[in-house]
From TrEMBL, chain A:
Keywords: Membrane, Transmembrane, Transmembrane helix. The chain crosses the membrane at residues 7-25, 31-53, 73-91, 97-120, 243-269. This is Uncharacterized protein.
TrEMBL record, chain B:
The keyword Phosphoprotein does not apply. InterPro entries: 4Fe4S_Fe-S-bd, 4Fe4S_Fe_S_CS, cNMP-bd_dom, cNMP-bd_dom_sf, RmlC-like_jellyroll, RnfB_subfamily. It comes from Hwanghaeella grinnelliae. Pfam families: cNMP_binding (PF00027), Fer4_11 (PF13247). This is 4Fe-4S dicluster domain-containing protein. It comes from the Bacteria. GO terms for molecular function: 4 iron, 4 sulfur cluster binding; metal ion binding.
């Protein structure tokens, strides 16, 4: 991702808004007011606006601005909320189990958000560069088809070549690998070790085959490459979806605790405001 | 010379318009005007008039009240009354309900919100009462395997609408067929009527070889359409009636290419660049004398420039676009005269209008406001053209992408769904939004042809030349009155799949419909009732296309291919 003036400008606005909150906080402290009430409500308001992105997605039929603009707002308001959160805590570690849990959840939400933004920018170009475009939900179907084709090829190789070399190689080294998505971290980290090892195994097998067998092995190699591409898409697409399973539940947990927190704070506020 | 003479017959005759044309039918038609007056010797042996009659014409029978053509239909054929008569509805237009169309209107806030809870759980659920009801004012009857829509109450139509009869020998629909423009009037059979239907290729070939027929067609076009066509272009909008008439009088009609673009492009895409080029007729050649301003009337053309051994595409032109203006302006302003700087080639059959140079220089340019003048041509470039610079000059798009768009005729799209796969996180929010706005049925697949990081998704492109609209027997597929989106009236669709088979991009899907309980709706023969479905560009939704609006990463856009600037800007932004 390239940082443009627009990105820097928007981030700058979020930063300046957080700085304004910081000075407001300091000013209120100097005036012997309790600034945590103000920063707390701003924080809660900010978090509620952030969750509206999900609501907007559920209402595609209403003219509520384009989701891409909501996402921009989500990202930069998110940075502002992070700043406000630190100010609200007075840059201290909270005490009390509710506050500590909330802080942990907040950190999880913020970090998963940052991670999600990074993944959303970095993984799609990698998906473009490798293999065919495939819909995530259909990957298991394609994998089954590949495995069946590879099974058939192994049987065919025995019938056609009266040799079990390829069938043995397939049964011992590949059959299990073909049964389900594999090499998740290899693909995510783009290590390529498994792919290289597979290539080596295929190359070394060739030494012991005649021409007909080599042809069959070539077909098996093509299937293995397709399987590897599918694994790659599976790993990256799963990751692109997976971070939301941390971000969203943690958000709702945080909001629920925030409501409890607000009630408790106001119940025990006394005359300090 | 040994052996019989071998001639090349037109490939379209491998699939004649009708297999039921007999020798007697051909003999009979050849005795009728205007065919009996045509000079058969002006037709080559490979394409005799009799063969055109046999292969490009068919006889169709209509009963009283049968609708022959509807206003707004896209036709590719003309008709001649053989016996009986048809009535043309002059004024007022027949209402949409009578023409098998739905009247689109935007949902209100409540109507939009209702989709939250009212969308059925099962796919393709329909209101069975509506399916059974059809249009109360029209009916449908199947005859000889063809479905005819008929008006139930012809006497009241005759009373309430101003209609005029067309008698035996009258030809109608030829301008819409040749120009692939919407029919301007609706016609229905007045009593049992026999019509001769002539497909456009037949009209074109007769027009080429019979002067009287050509003059007749050209005269009709000049009288009915040409002035409107010119008036629609900014170049001519400032001319008064008398001046524009003189431009129209001098305008020459020209036709290039043999095959319809949508039937030939898939085969041509398999050829090498040089082979493909041989199938693209040159309309105006690079380096040739500038003999006029070209206006594309129908079809598509490629603008290219020769660089070393290749001819990279600079841009493409479609209906209503012009070519040669830059050179004409240069020659008009300067003493040093230049030829055409690029080549204009037809992509399949292209009809063009050529306004001669003298007319442009004497009438058009002197009256043209300066802001409409194109940027001056740069003649002394510091560097020689490279393939990349030529492509960039025209559109700003990547060379390969531009060629991909042309080769696959994506250039036809007015609302093509482009997905930038470098930005798409494969979340399918676009598909979900589409489903949410279409009774839980997504109307596109996030899948399609791809060039690099650009995917052309399988979604209706709402084409400039919507070939899917040709041949719909009930008029169910039509252009919306709102913004010209191509939409299907589900109630009028009979599931014949004509549109789905015609769409060159496979963007129309046939589905079996269900009742409110989720059971398939069956006909008398226990076969499922089928309907055509496709993207309607959210014609009834408040905010426009929900797919584009739902994309969180700006990875999906609906784009008009006639304007490449915004596409390049979107694809190139970081």
């Amino acid at each position: 991702m390239t940082l443009t003036r627009k990105h820097i400008g928007r981030f700058g606005i979020a930063f300046l808004a957080a700085v304004a909150i910081y000075f407001l906080h300091g000013g209120m402290q100097a005036a012997l007011w309790e600034p945590a009430f103000v920063t707390g409500w701003i924080l809660l308001g900010g978090m509620l606006v952030l969750t509206l992105l999900n609501t907007r997605k559920k209402l595609p039929f209403l003219p509520l601005a384009k989701v891409r603009n909501w996402v921009k707002l989500h990202v930069y308001l998110g940075w502002f909320v992070v700043g406000t959160f630190l100010i609200h805590l007075d840059f201290n570690v909270p005490n009390g189990w509710i506050e500590t849990t909330m802080a942990v959840l907040f950190v999880i939400v913020a970090l998963s958000g940052v991670l999600g933004a990074f993944l959303s920018k970095s993984l799609p170009p990698r998906l473009t560069r490798r293999g065919e475009e495939v819909i995530f939900e259909r990957i298991p179907i394609f994998m089954t088809q590949l495995r069946e084709a590879a099974d058939d090829l192994a049987v065919y190789s025995v019938e056609q070549t009266t040799s079990t070399s390829i069938a043995d190689f397939y049964a011992e080294r590949l059959r299990d690998w073909f049964t389900r998505p594999r090499d998740y971290f290899e693909h995510i980290m783009e290590l390529g070790g498994r792919r290289f090892a597979l290539k080596q195994e295929f190359d070394s097998m060739e030494r012991y085959l005649n021409d007909t067998e080599k042809e069959v092995l070539g077909e098996l190699r093509a299937l293995a490459e397709k399987k590897s591409d599918l694994d790659y898409h599976y790993a990256l697409q799963k990751t692109l979806k997976g971070w939301l399973f941390i971000h969203i539940p943690a958000t709702y947990g945080l909001l629920a605790l925030a409501v409890v927190h607000v009630i408790l704070v106001h119940a025990f506020a006394g005359m300090s405001l | 010379m040994d052996g019989p003479l071998v001639i090349q017959r037109p490939m379209r005759w491998d699939n004649p318009f009708s297999t039921e044309m007999t020798d007697e039918d051909v003999d009979r038609i050849m005795t009728l005007e205007p065919f009996c007056n045509m000079d058969e010797s002006s037709f080559p042996p490979s394409m005799s008039l009799r063969d055109i009659v046999r292969n490009d014409m068919r006889i169709r029978n209509y009963r009283h009240g049968d609708i022959v053509v509807r206003r707004g239909d896209y036709g590719n054929s003309a008709f001649m009354v053989l016996s009986g008569s048809v009535r043309v509805v002059i004024n007022p237009d027949l209402p949409d309900a009578l023409l098998g169309r739905q009247t689109e209107k935007k949902r209100g806030v409540f109507g939009a919100l209702k989709q939250l809870w009212a969308n059925p759980d099962m796919p393709e659920v329909r209101d069975v009462a509506r399916l059974k009801g059809g249009g109360a004012e029209t009916g449908q009857r199947v005859r000889d395997g063809e479905t005819h829509t008929f008006l139930q109450d012809v006497p009241s139509i005759m009373k309430d609408y101003h209609t005029e009869p067309l008698r035996e020998g009258t030809i109608f629909g030829e301008i819409a067929a040749l120009g692939r423009t919407p029919r301007t009037l609706s016609l229905f059979a007045d009593g049992d009527t026999e019509l001769l239907e002539i497909r456009w290729q037949g009209i074109r070939d007769i027009r080429r070889r019979d002067e009287a027929f050509r003059n007749h067609i050209d005269k009709l076009y000049r009288e009915r359409s040409l002035i409107h066509h010119l008036r629609a272009l900014p170049l001519f909008q400032h001319l008064d009636d008398e001046t524009i008439q003189s431009v129209a009088d001098a305008t020459v009609f020209e036709t290039y290419g043999e095959f319809e673009w949508h039937t030939s492009f898939k085969k041509l895409a398999e050829l090498t660049g040089a082979e493909r080029l041989r199938h693209e007729p040159v309309i105006a050649g690079e380096g040739e004398y500038v003999d006029g301003l070209f206006l594309i009337r129908t079809g598509f053309a490629r603008v290219s420039r020769h660089v070393n051994h290749g001819d990279p595409t600079i841009s493409f032109l479609g209906r209503g676009e012009v070519y040669g203006l830059e050179e004409l302006v240069h020659n008009w302003k300067n003493d040093d005269q230049i030829p055409y700087q690029n080549s204009l080639r037809g992509l399949g059959n292209v009809d063009v209008l050529r306004v001669p140079t003298k007319i442009v220089e004497d009438i058009v340019l002197p009256n043209l406001p300066p802001n409409l003048l194109p940027a001056p041509i740069v003649l002394d470039k510091p560097e020689a053209d490279s393939i990349q610079s030529v492509t960039q000059e025209g559109s700003g798009l990547d060379t390969g992408l531009l060629e991909f768009l042309v080769e696959n005729r994506i250039i036809n799209g007015r609302a093509t769904m482009l997905i930038n796969t470098d930005r798409c996180v494969r979340c399918d929010d676009c598909v979900r939004a589409c489903a949410a706005t279409h009774n839980n049925n997504p109307r596109f697949a996030r899948h399609g042809r791809r060039y690099g990081n650009v995917m052309i998704a399988n979604a209706c492109m709402h084409c400039t030349d919507p070939v899917c609209m040709i041949g719909c027997p009930t008029g169910a597929i039509h252009r919306s009155s709102l913004q010209g989106q191509v939409v299907i009236n589900d109630s009028a669709c009979i599931g014949c799949a004509t549109c789905a088979n015609s769409c060159p991009y496979d963007n129309i899907r046939m589905v079996a419909v269900r009742d409110e309980n989720g059971d398939f709706v069956l006909d008398e023969a226990n076969a499922p009732i089928m309907k055509s479905t496709k993207c309607d560009l959210c014609v009834d939704q408040m905010g426009g296309p929900s797919c584009e609006r739902a994309c969180p990463h700006d990875a999906l856009r609906r784009v008009n291919m006639s304007d490449l600037g915004p596409i390049a800007e979107w694809l190139n932004q970081s």
